[in-house]
Design the sequence.
């Protein structure tokens, strides 16, 4: 009986280890919120044995959480600076660092009555009372939005109109619900199937803000999980590239 119990205990331990190895915790920037749905459906076809647990938010907030011990296995950031800083701190695997896209900023309105034909300069119109941008303190798209407004000498002009989203997904929600008349949001969000027919958008010239290079990395917690490497490899696959491109996540030329 003792021998049987030992064998059963050993089997249970192996099974539990296998279950843990089949789970992957991913923390991703909010601009990926819609794209991830398609990406993960494609990933599941290749790796049906891996269960993905996803958290999205502002890249800076996730970076702070990982610094404070959050056990995410893979981090997809809207700013390559954050993964690089984790690598320097010994909290991520340098060899896994992968550039998966370059993000793009657009002016978007969900109202048919708002004219945005002049792009960023349209935001000064009297009909635009509130302009949504992500918080520049911890959201890469917020920093890009501020840089674009400063490029056109409009930051001080529009200060009184600005409302700040905690991340780019919340910023887009402000525009979608009419709590803001227009906003500076991610191209990937306005190309999402449930939003691309909602209102109008115009792309902000790329020279108006620093390039939004976006990268993925395996964290220190993820280095012991084989599923982490499988996920990073998938991000570099032809199928993943096709999905990224469809959502406006182009690679820098």
Sequence:
């Amino acid at each position: 009986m003792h021998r049987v119990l030992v064998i059963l205990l050993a089997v249970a331990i192996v099974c539990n280890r296998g279950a843990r190895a089949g789970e992957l915790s991913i923390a991703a920037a909010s601009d990926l919120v819609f794209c991830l749905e398609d990406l993960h459906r494609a990933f599941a076809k290749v790796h049906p044995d891996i269960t993905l647990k996803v958290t999205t938010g502002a890249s800076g907030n996730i970076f702070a959480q990982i610094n404070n011990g959050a056990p995410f296995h893979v981090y997809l950031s809207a700013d390559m600076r954050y993964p690089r800083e984790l690598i320097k701190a010994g909290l991520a695997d340098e060899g896994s660092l992968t550039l998966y896209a370059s993000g793009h900023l657009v002016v978007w309105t969900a109202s048919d009555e708002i004219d945005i034909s002049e792009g960023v300069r349209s935001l000064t119109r009297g009909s635009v009372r509130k302009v949504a941008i992500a918080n520049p303190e911890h959201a890469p798209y917020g920093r890009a939005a501020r840089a674009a407004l400063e490029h056109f000498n409009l930051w001080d002009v529009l200060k009184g109109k600005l409302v700040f989203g905690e991340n780019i997904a919340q910023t887009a929600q402000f525009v979608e619900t009419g709590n803001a008349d227009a906003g500076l949001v991610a191209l990937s969000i306005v190309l999402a199937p449930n939003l691309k027919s909602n209102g109008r958008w115009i792309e902000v010239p790329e020279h108006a803000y620093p390039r939004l290079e976006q990268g993925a990395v395996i964290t220190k917690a993820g280095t012991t999980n084989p599923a982490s490497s499988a996920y990073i490899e998938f991000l570099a696959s032809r199928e993943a590239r096709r999905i990224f491109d469809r959502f406006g996540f182009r690679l820098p030329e």
